[in-house]
Design brief:
- It is globular, with a radius of gyration of 20 Å.
- Helix 8 crosses helix 11, helix 8 packs across helix 12 and helix 9 packs antiparallel against helix 10.
- Helices cover 54% and strands 12% of the residues.
- The strands form two sheets. It has a six-stranded parallel sheet, with helices on both faces. It has a three-stranded mixed sheet with strand order 7-8-9.
- It contains 13 helices and nine strands.
- The protein is of the alpha/beta class.
- The structure holds NADP nicotinamide-adenine-dinucleotide phosphate (NAP).
- The site of NADP nicotinamide-adenine-dinucleotide phosphate (NAP) has 26 residues, from helix 1, helix 4 and helix 11.
Length: 288
């Protein structure tokens, strides 16, 4: 299929590579052009602008935040009036997803398709996609979503619902990391190695992927280079807060994890992985 891909960061570059490997005809665009070089060498076409990338059946975007998505959709040479169905993978606000759905209506169409999985999962084509939009739109982009993921969850016709699921899931990941960090700090200060605690936890009641993936990162202090940067994680917790405020849902745990993310960024800098909250937790216990 003829497809455009916009946003070649840690996640987007890996996803676009898998589209090429699956035999699709891919045009790529990134704000910093050098990030397209490897994909162009691998056979992608270098698009001159977002609008040029969207001269296709489908255009997929994987961008940092609301401002980035707004820039490529509504900005100069944006994709709003392009012929391509827009499939948006970025983790963005509910409000922007609703606006994108409205703005694309009567045009080529819009699907929200945020993903679960870190860059290693994106490279392996093992992401989980949560997709929502009109059925014919979901059918059209299905082969592309299959090429970047191990499973696609179709959750209905309202695109922003997929973003709400993604934000709910990221709140749970951050809460799981916080719980792991507190438990590991308690164990370590009492003389039990983090690895020992993790082996028991994941071998008994906590064998879920989130504890395994983040447990290893915390046990081995693998916070740099960031797979998912703490500033993007903080962005997501702020988006969760906006959704909770709009729906009047108290989320006291959200305040705790968000403050630890702020502390981790303040203490460690913006290049730290969001799992770096563990460093703030350890410092609080006097062992960081
Ligand atoms: P990243 O490596 O920081 O890449 C961000 C991308 O957005 C880059 O292509 C960047 O372009 C582009 N961008 C930023 N501001 C822009 C603007 N104003 N105009 C145009 N382009 C702009 O981030 P990532 O880790 O790939 O994450 C991308 C999205 O996926 C985020 O919404 C994130 O929350 C979500 N996500 C990430 C993970 C993960 O583990 N990393 C997992 C699931 C979901 P430049 O290269 O020019 O800076």
């Amino acid at each position: 299929m003829k497809v455009g891909f916009i946003g070649l960061g840690r996640m987007g570059a890996a996803m676009a590579t898998n589209l090429l490997k699956a035999g699709h005809e891919v045009a790529v665009w990134n704000r910093s052009p050098d990030k397209a070089d490897a994909l162009v060498q691998a056979g992608a076409r270098r698009a001159a602008s977002p609008r040029d990338a969207a001269e296709a059946a489908v255009v997929m975007s994987m961008l940092a935040d609301d401002a980035a998505v707004e820039a490529v959709v509504h900005g100069a040479d944006g994709i709003l009036d392009a012929p391509a169905l827009h499939v948006s993978h970025s983790t963005i606000s509910i409000a922007l997803a609703e606006r994108l759905a409205a703005d694309h209506a009567g045009r080529a169409g819009y699907v929200s398709a945020p993903v679960f999985g870190r860059p290693a999962a994106a490279e392996a084509g093992k992401l989980f996609v949560v997709a929502a939009g009109a059925t014919d739109h979901l059918d059209r982009c299905a082969p592309l979503l299959d090429a970047v993921s191990q499973r696609v969850f179709r959750i209905g016709e309202t695109p922003s619902a997929a973003n709400l699921v993604k934000l709910s899931g990221n709140f749970m990941i951050m809460s799981a990391v916080e719980a792991l960090a507190e438990a590991m700090t308690l164990a370590e200060k009492g003389g039990v190695a983090r690895e020992t605690l993790l082996a028991v936890l994941t071998g008994t009641l906590f064998g879920a992927p989130v504890y395994q993936t983040y447990g290893e990162i915390l046990a081995q202090d693998r916070f740099r280079p960031a797979g998912f940067s703490a500033p993007l994680g903080l962005k997501d917790m702020n988006l969760v807060d906006a959704a909770a405020t709009a729906s009047q849902v108290p989320m006291p745990l959200l305040g705790v994890v968000r403050d630890h993310l702020r502390a981790a960024i303040a203490q460690e800098g913006e290049d730290i992985d969001w799992a770096g909250v563990a460093l703030a937790v350890r410092r609080g216990a006097g062992i960081g």
